[in-house]
Amino acid sequence: MGGIKEIAKMTGVSLATVSRVFNNSALVSPKTREKVLKAAKDIDYRPNVMAAALRSGKSKIIGVIVPEVNNSFFSDIINGIEGVVSDSGFNIIISQTHEKQERENAALNSLLELNVDGILMSISKETKDYTQIQKIIDSKTPIVFFDRRPTLDAINAVLLNNYLGAYIATEHLIDMDCENILHIAGNPDVSIFEERKKGFVAAAQKHRVQYLVNHLPNIKSNPEEDLNSLKDILKKHPNIDGIFAYGDEMAIHLLNLLNTLKIEVPKQVKLIGFGNANFSALTQPSLSSIDQESSLMGELSANLLLQNLKRKTKPTAKVLSPKLIRRESTKNLDQ
């Protein structure tokens, strides 16, 4: 593989011009750029990105930190981020924390060592100590939070109105004639799940329906135990005719559990989730849900970060409005 000296000789331009091409300088004409890139391809030349980053102080890399890559919500956000970032000439490095603060801190340290230009992140369920995040802020590395944010002042974030989403979901169940509604709540230590619980309670109280908040914490790891828990809930509260799950994955587990208990959805119990995951339309019956605008959240987060990379802007918090997606699991069969 040849180097930039060989490319300069092949194209008849200076070494400085070749360097400008690989640094995406606007000083190079389109014709010259095309000629240099063709010569680079002919000799299989690939620029040393890290060396260039050390010289310029810019890596052209943006770090993305998410709790779980295999979560459809976060994968949709990453798709939204990637579309915006790649069009702007940046590459992304993705790290997942598996909801552990220790992993989150390690990822932040690694991104600092790589001298990334900026960071996009959603904090883990465990994160209570913001020392490492504050270190990033103090380093002047631009950072934008999405979905979940730390309780720090003057930060950039793109969020969803989780309270409103839960309120809409609960009101939809009430509109579908549900009078005794169960909310399967998320981890109380995570602010977005607490906001959803508050929205649920507010809607139920406003419309004066009977309601219950409960947790099935082991549903992913111990379905048998959760089946027994759900049996107990329904036995104690036999009039439950609507269930609002804090997330679509939880709602799918509930759908399976209800099927095992021979409880028909939506005939006997109406069920709604939160997230509008890709699989929500594929279940039997298809799952009503609250759309979180996940791709848009990724796009807005990336654009906000790019704005901060160009010029320092005032801290901004953008809040997206959720949307109700009606499907079969909340349908009134007599309509």
From TrEMBL:
Domain HTH lacI-type: residue ranges = 4-56
Supply one GO molecular-function term: DNA-binding transcription factor activity
Signal peptide as annotated in the record: none
User: Keyword Ribosomal protein, does the record have it?
Assistant: no
Return the Pfam families for the record: LacI (PF00356), Peripla_BP_3 (PF13377)
Name the CDD domains for this protein: HTH_LacI, PBP1_LacI_sugar_binding-like
- The identity of this protein, by name, is LacI family transcriptional regulator
Source organism per entry reads Flagellimonas meridianipacifica
